[in-house]
Amino acid sequence: MSEVLLEVQNLKTYFTITKGKVKAVDGVSFTLNKGESIGLVGESGCGKTTTALSVIRLLPKEGNVEGGKIIFEGNDITNLEEEKLSDFRWKEVSMIFQGAMNALNPVKRVCDQIAEPILLHEKISKTEAMKRVKELFELVELDTNLMYSYPHEFSGGMRQRAIIAMALACNPKLIIGDEPTTALDVMVQAQILDLINDLRKKLNMSMIMITHDLSIITETCDKVAIMYAGKIVELGETEEVVTNSLHPYTKMLISAFPNIYGERKMVDSIPGDPPDLYNPPEGCRFAQRCHMVNSKVCIPEESPPLIDYTGEGHFVACHLWRNSNV
Amino acid sequence: MCENTKNIIEINDLEVNFKIKQGFYEEYIKRDKKIVRAVDKVNLNIGKGEIVSLVGESGSGKTSTGRALLQLTPISSGNIVFDGEEIKLNDKEYMKNFRKRAQMIFQDPYQSLNPRFTVFDIVTEPLLFTNSKARIAEKEVLALKALEFAGLRPAAEYLYRYPHELSGGQRQRVSIATCFIMSPDFIIADEPVSMLDASVRADILKLFVSMKEQQGTSFLFITHDLALAWLISNRVAIMYLGKIMESGPADLIADGCLHPYSQALTSVLAMVGEKKKTKRIVLKDETPSPLKVPKGCRFHTRCPVSRPYCSEVEPEYREINPGHFIYCHYPQKII
Ligand SMILES: Nc1ncnc2c1ncn2[C@@H]1O[C@H](COP(=O)(O)OP(=O)(O)OP(=O)(O)O)[C@@H](O)[C@H]1O
Ligand SMILES: Nc1ncnc2c1ncn2[C@@H]1O[C@H](COP(=O)(O)OP(=O)(O)OP(=O)(O)O)[C@@H](O)[C@H]1O
Ligand SMILES: [Mg+2]
Ligand SMILES: [Mg+2]
After folding, report:
1. Which of A70, A161, A215, B70 is disulfide-compatible with A140, CB 3.0–4.6 A?
2. Greatest distance between any 2 Cα atoms in chain A
3. B292: contact with A, CB 8 A cutoff
4. CB distance B57–A215 less than 8 Å?
5. What is the rounded CA–CA span in Å between residue B160 and residue B142?
């Protein structure tokens, strides 16, 4: 049996705004084993980043975990005290933030920026920290002669490697990548994805990969969670979810991507927009855009629970599958 | 539209150079002028009613090519033939008509719309130049028609909204409506869907295809996404460091590329739910700076099959099969 690293149970993270609450994450559950990778996929605004920020406990002040639990290596960290958090963040979990490669400090040498978390969290000297930085440079395949350079001397791909090195600085068990390759060119993206895959194997690290691009997930993740409007609508082994998808949303999302090895036919869109999470609709949140909607069931009944449809870990949250199962 | 010419656009040996501003010392004492050859002897035709995609990584010169076509960036050398005649930059009447017939849709739906204008103002702005005497009611009719066409329905509901009240996909539709109101013959769409979610971009792509099919509109579709280029275009051209490496029918992308660069690009494309059939060729390092274009074939420094000759002599851009052009001394299948 593989060992569980992270368990997210019925997580509810809301943002308080003047007129009320934005239910950005509303009942999300998944588990992640040691060494395993999971992808969080979905349209803009569905709650991917908020889920990650809840796990690493870095929500902005208007954001609060209002329900559910986050369990890391058997310990409930949902209410971990502030002083323990900073170590937790670098040594247990670290995150590559959306757009981080453009957020490096322009007036600080790259090596100093990477050494910073090391000096803060490991009791070692500056010289030892620099030795670690050098190792990290080698690990992410950056020329160690460039250690003392400033970020502007780095290309986009090199900066992303530096960000990855920083995330690895304190040997975390879990790394979260929030759209880590989105702004990069195809070839650089391929290089970075290869690097991430290699590092994960080498260091036996778990990963949460956030992206809106399903094709990236196919290449990097063991499992995938398809999110829609603050909820997971389908979850399972990547291969299984992508080839035998159950939820109408997953199917529509897949058919929005062209496949150059298949027939050349126009891709489909999903009509309409995702709901406003300040005031999400009753019933299934996807019902308004679903071509398979059954208005007698999908709208009046409660939001459908995520159930293991196959009994082998392929979960789906859809009234239609629920009813055909019973 | 002139009926007896086949191509809407013919690009002949187009060059676009940018001078980089430097310090006084480099500029005047060392006389070391730095020039970026953003577009370096590019040749490409776009047939009437055809969608041609220009694909390439960031900085390869796609936007510069597009802007030069519309005379929004000065051309350093070469010429552009529009519907059978060379563009007459100094002829005011000609240019007015040209600006009407050739339009550009810009990349970023979040920046390209003026936030203080309503959708109506934005969509009818081009009419100021061409039909300045149109009355409001008349303009409204045109705007509604254009918005409706661009898929914003019911159009009346969007007419007096501001950009910040629209989603990214809706903004991009406003840009398209703005372009459509002139009924152009030729549209340059610069990364029109790259900021949009996959779930909404198909509608925009379908719109282009239907403009092509119903009005015979021609397109230069600029993108970094090879799969989208394959999907919607008749022909594709792949750029690297200011030059077209390979061009030909869109189907090349699925299986027919002969340039090592194009093959590397297609080999790393991941398809949803598709197990990789071919080997991936992940090129090492990164594209050299356009200030230091390598001698000989500009791709030789990263080419997995380069030979000594490649670093010495620059290849010609030549036709190896009818309609299939290549910039490579040794075109070959490498996968
Ligand atoms: N600080 C905040 N205050 C109020 N609402 C917020 C805040 N941050 C995020 N939201 C809202 O929460 C929802 C989820 O946002 P989140 O950033 O998690 O989405 P995402 O899936 O990461 O999207 P993207 O792909 O665009 O990054 C959205 O509706 C967003 O508008
Ligand atoms: N106004 C300018 N002044 C100086 N250099 C420029 C200018 N515009 C573009 N360049 C340079 O010309 C080259 C080509 O740029 P261009 O914008 O055409 O690339 P692109 O293929 O459209 O890239 P992207 O995918 O990032 O939009 C780049 O090296 C760029 O830095
Ligand atoms: Mg996000
Ligand atoms: Mg561009």
Report:
1. A161
2. 68
3. no
4. no
5. 14
User: Whose Cα sits closest to atom 8 in ligand 2?
Assistant: B64
Q: Which two tokens stand for residue B162?
A: 């501001």
Distance, CA A79 to ligand 1 centroid (Å)? 22
- Residue to substitute in A16, A18, A50, A212 for testing ligand 1 pocket (most ligand atoms within 8 angstroms of CB): A50
**β-strand partners of A30:** A8
Instruction: Please work out, in degrees rounded to the nearest 5, the angle formed at the alpha carbon of residue B149 by the alpha carbons of B144 and B151.
Output: 100
Structure-block tokens of residue A95: 């995150």
Q: What are the pLDDT tens digits along chain B (335 aa)?
A: 555 679 999 999 999 999 877 666 666 666 666 889 999 999 999 999 999 999 999 999 999 999 999 999 999 999 999 999 999 999 999 998 999 899 999 877 677 788 899 999 999 988 877 666 778 888 999 999 999 888 888 889 899 999 888 877 888 889 989 988 888 999 999 998 888 888 888 988 999 999 999 999 999 999 999 999 999 999 999 999 999 999 999 999 988 999 999 999 999 998 887 776 678 999 998 899 888 899 999 999 999 999 999 999 999 999 999 999 999 999 999 98
Measured between CA atoms, how close is B327 to chain A, in angstroms?
20
Adjacent-strand bridge partners of A39: A209, A224
Q: Do B273 and A260 touch (CB under 8 A)?
A: no
Contact between residue A162 and residue A168 where contact means Cβ atoms under 8 Å apart = no
Domains along chain A?
A: 4-322 (3.40.50.300)
Long-range contacts of residues B167-171, Cβ cutoff 8 Å, at least 24 apart: B167/A273, B167/B200, B168/A44, B168/B109, B168/B110, B168/B195, B168/B196, B168/B197, B168/B200, B169/A273, B169/B109, B169/B196, B169/B197, B169/B200, B169/B201, B169/B203, B169/B204, B171/B109, B171/B110, B171/B112, B171/B113
In angstroms, the separation between the Cα of residue A285 and the nearest Cα of chain B is 16
